[in-house]
What does this fold into?
Amino acid sequence: MTARDELLGRSVAWFAEHGVGDTSLRTLAAGIGTSHRMLNYHFGSRAGLLGAVVEAVERAEQDALRELVATHEDPFEAGALFWQHVADRAAVFAPLFFELSTHAMRGEPHAALLRRWFAEGWSDALADGYRRLGVDEDRAATLALQSLAMARGLLFEVAVTGDRAAADTAMVRWTAMVRRELEAP
Amino acid sequence: MTARDELLGRSVAWFAEHGVGDTSLRTLAAGIGTSHRMLNYHFGSRAGLLGAVVEAVERAEQDALRELVATHEDPFEAGALFWQHVADRAAVFAPLFFELSTHAMRGEPHAALLRRWFAEGWSDALADGYRRLGVDEDRAATLALQSLAMARGLLFEVAVTGDRAAADTAMVRWTAMVRRELEAP
DNA sequence: TCAATCATGTACCAGATGGTACATGCGCCG
DNA sequence: CGGCGCATGTACCATCTGGTACATGATTGA
It folds into this structure.
């Protein structure tokens, strides 16, 4: 692990806990035990650091999902495990996720990268899963969108209220609703 | 309309479009055609302004919902209209909503007010609606949570991808799923 | 008309900000 | 050993930040 990677990892953790918008390079540097000179040295500028952070967070989540999908046959089971994975990290992951998403909604900075992260990939992968279960194209796209929305909405709820149990049962019952929907004509 | 209200309204619009975190009092003042002196005069401080903004946004949304609920008998119809109301304003409302929500997730500032806004009220009102349809307590709570999560997740999707049509059909089909769920034993 | 209250503009403050020039360490390879 | 390149620390810069003191304009009520 290079010194840069070390700084990057600690920066992600700090941003997740304390927010991106309100954190200056100096505050961050003091918080993770380095100097603001180092951050500019390794990442060129504040914008460079943010870009690296976005990339790192995106790759970590996508890697986790890919591994779950690869190691589990049943897509519902993989989905349940991924929900668990995300919800476990809700307190630290959700604030960063939703904060960065607002940048994507408004444009700069890093809007293109963030849009790709939030929009593509996820719903495509989910729709693929439904299609493999024999659902027709139109239905699969909507189900993927709904599942994604449900997961993000429940993640939001967990992060704000801290009520993990309620969100878990909501997710379980949502899966049951989808299963019933698929079995129906 | 007092001068203060005028400034507050324009501030909300500016924050929605350009973000809270990256906007200084001076930038905001220049953007809405006043001086940063005026903002400090009317709101005391930056924190005071943000508090007023949060309060104003919350009240506006809750008023809209209350009016829809009061003027429509069928809760599904009121829900559909409220979704339309929110989705119409997604581009300007969602970024502000999700940005402020990260403040609530992390604590200060205005965490208490924001928590109340995001957590209570909404799901309670929804659960009441389901209970009035004869759903049992446990089921109603979960359905309220799911409906809220679905709406917020789809709002997120609309704000990021701009695909309103897909979100609309997803919402319509979700309502249908709930209706079927309620008719089932 | 005149005072008084509210609103607004100008100018300033101390501190923080992102960024950089420069000097110094440290470890690796010849 | 010597030198060289990466890493790190110090000090500084121009600019911007939130906030305030003070003077002035506008409005209104007696």
In short: Residues 47-183 of chain A form a domain with the Tetracycline Repressor; domain 2 fold (CATH 1.10.357). The radius of gyration of chain A is 18 Å.
